[in-house]
Amino acid sequence: MNYNNNFDQDRQPESGYTYVQGLGFVPFGPAYKERTSLITCANAIGLAVLLYLFLRVAIPDYVVRVLMLFVPEIRYFNSHLMAPEWITQIIDGTCFLLSNFIAYGLYMLFIRIPVKVALPLKRPQASVTVASVLIALAVSVLGSILTSAIGRVFGFVGLIPIMPDISVSLTPTGLIAALVNICILPAFVEEFVFRGVLLQSLRRFGDGFALAISSIIFSMLHLNFIQAPVALLTGFVIGYFVIRTGSVLTGVIIHFINNFLALIQQIIMPLLSQHLADIVNLLVVLVYLILGLVAMVLLARSSDNLFELKTIPSSFSVRKRAKMFFSCPAMVIAIVLIASLSLHSIQRLPR
């Protein structure tokens, strides 16, 4: 028995009967058990997502009130938080960490997935990890190109997609805060959640299914239409290499390096002239694409069945499983809420 894909079998009804016309009471079949398990998991994930979104709004005020007991510089003025930059960064990071820990920690408890299954932490193979980083960087560039194309399409219909404003202070405390909140925390927290808890808990329905669903949820929770393509593609690549190496640490490494290089670019680009910045950006794109292509070729030559994922016997097609997953009540509510929140990332051009 593959323990990773069957950790919740004790939750499934091993005995139980349903009435079938002409046959009387017969035991529940495998299709019923699979459907029940999938719907339960989907609703649990939907509720976890909703709880996460609620906590992101509810927790900051409590964190601020606790910090006000120790840091007298923190105060409210006309409902606006007045605090040093390093304090606001601590508040943001703390709220991000607590929201994820509470929401998805409760999900883990509900589905009873063991920590060692949800967070496989074996040491990944160095050569595969290096290749995965280069491939992920190349895919992020392709995602950025796709994002630019989507932005132009929005412009044609009179809409302006807005990227989140991430300002980085060049002071020592500002740089440390940016390193923690942009690189370190997302690398560990988001990988533990999306490529750890969510991806691993869904693998009992098939690796391909788990990879697609976890990547879609990862992209949706960016709450930004223009960021979604990059998040979807990079999430898919990171998830694949986490599965392939059997370690969520692979995802942490990829995520950290990707965000760290993006942070370096964000710091350096404003210091350059527009012409020089365009040249540097073009060179970065070319280098990422070339290194990613080389890494993929070398990895393909050294590995058998590079892009094959484990399949499992199922009573339903992947399309049917996806339809059941996203049509569950909690997931429908979560999708509607995410879509409404994401609308804030688009503005209409003035006429």
TrEMBL record:
Q: Where are the transmembrane segments?
A: 37-55, 90-110, 130-154, 166-189, 209-242, 279-300, 324-343
* Any one Gene Ontology BP term: CAAX-box protein maturation
CAAX prenyl protease 2/Lysostaphin resistance protein A-like domain mapped to chain residues:
174-261
One term of GO molecular function: endopeptidase activity
Whether Transmembrane helix counts among this entry's keywords is: yes
Q: Does the keyword Transmembrane helix apply?
A: yes
For this UniProt record, the keywords arranged alphabetically read as follows: Hydrolase, Membrane, Protease, Transmembrane, Transmembrane helix
InterPro entries in the record: CAAX_protease, Rce1/LyrA-like_dom
Q: Which PANTHER family does the record match to this protein? A: CAAX AMINO TERMINAL PROTEASE FAMILY PROTEIN, SLR1288 PROTEIN
The protein here is known as: CAAX protease self-immunity
What lineage is this protein's organism placed in?
Bacteria, Bacillati, Bacillota, Clostridia, Eubacteriales
